[in-house]
Amino acid sequence: MTTQAQYQLVNQEAAMRNLEKNTRRRRRGSRLKPAGSRTSFRLFLCILPFLILAFLFSYLPLYGWVYSLYDYKPALGLEGSEFVGLQWFQMLVSSPTQMAQIGQVLLNTLAISFLGILTSILPLGFAIFLNEIRASWFRGSVQTLTALPNFISWVLVYMIAFSLFSSSGLVNDVLMDAGLITAPLKFLDSAENVWLTMTLWSIWKGLGWGAIIYLAAIAGVDQSLYESAKIDGAGRFQTMWHITLPQLMPTYLVLLLLSIANILNNGMEQYYVFQNAFNKQWIQVLDLYVYNIGMTGNSLSLATAIGMLKSLISVALLLTVNAISKRVRGESIV
Fold first, then answer.
1. Does 100 lie in the same domain as 20?
2. Where are the strands (E) in the chain, listed by range?
3. Number of CB atoms found within 10 A of residue 187's CB
4. Tens of pLDDT along 9-30?
5. Could you read off the pLDDT of 201-240 as tens digits, one per residue?
6. Radius of gyration of the chain (CA)
7. What pTM value is reported for the model?
8. Which of the residues 39, 91, 178, 299 has an alpha carbon 20 to 30 A from that of 21?
């Protein structure tokens, strides 16, 4: 046998041994790895508790919409209440007084929501400037102090506001002692600039917390972009304007679209604690209006009908914004 034939035989034997070894390795790996269906079932079990919570707190309460079809009396229960069909919905559009109230409530809701949308750029700018602080201890302190108000309940926020801005509060005492005013200013007991003051309190409470998501997005920016900009001679403000801001715009646009979809959902805690007889007409947003009708007005059926319409409009807005996002950005947000 020639030397070349011997080399070919040795190579063939080595190739066969490698093939057998790889086959055994694949078989051993397939025995160690669970089947695809088994893996999917395990992943499903992991998310099952969250699905149950979502069903209990988000979908099961939808059964309460049935109260909008009854003249519900809590003492009699649903079985003892009279079925009235669409009476409450017809009342909303046929009663001039009810229409006027809902019109004012919608005006308050939309005005405060639009002010919130206009000021939604503030957490973005705050995150950009906060990221430029070189001293890590100072940056961490500022971030912590500005995020802490988010964890304070609105009841405590109102206590702070009352201590500072009530007729006998600190601000009025300082102004009167300085001789700048002769009578206490009514910061809280006035209907003037209610929308603006509510927006300012929301900014104070949520500015630091809203900046966290932008700080996370900044951490994911490719650092080679900054290095290239420095090599080209760009300054800090130039890198902020031409690199950081464009990289954050997709995140900002998604949050902006979600805010537009939730334009009717202001919540009620803030407005509930700040409302009084002087500003009730201008501070009553849709969620607070539903609460006042249902709990203090003893008309749970009418409140359910209004809440039902609000939810349907919010879903329609979400679908509309999602379609706009798909056309503009090429991808949906939900």
1. no
2. 70-71, 82-83
3. 18
4. 555 666 667 667 666 666 655 5
5. 999 999 999 999 999 999 888 888 888 888 888 888 889 9
6. 31
7. 0.79
8. 39
Contact between 262 and 314 (Cβ < 8 Å): yes
**Do 285 and 108 form a contact (C-beta atoms < 8 A)?**
yes
Q: Are residues 138 and 24 in the same domain?
A: no
Cβ–Cβ under 8 Å, residues 218 and 132: no
The two tokens of residue 164 are: 């500072």
**3-state DSSP call for residue 183?**
coil
Instruction: Name which of 158, 170, 186 is nearest 274 in CA terms.
Output: 158
83 beta partners: 70
- Give the number of domains in the chain: 2
Cβ neighbourhood burial of 171 (10 Å; 0-12, 13-18, 19+): middle
Length of the chain: 334
Sequence-distant (6+) residues with CB within 8 A of 4 are none
Q: Are 133 and 139 in contact (CB under 8 A)?
A: yes
Expressed as residue numbers, the domain containing 123 is 96-328
* Same domain, residue pair 108 and 20: no
Q: Give SS3 for 266.
A: coil
**114, 202 in Cβ contact below 8 A?**
no
Distance, in Å, from the CA atom of 44 to the CA atom of 82, rounded to the nearest integer, reads: 43
Task: Return phi, psi of residue 127, to 5°.
Answer: -65, -40
240 shares a domain with 132: yes
**Cα 137 → chain centroid:** 29
Strands annotated E in 87-145: none
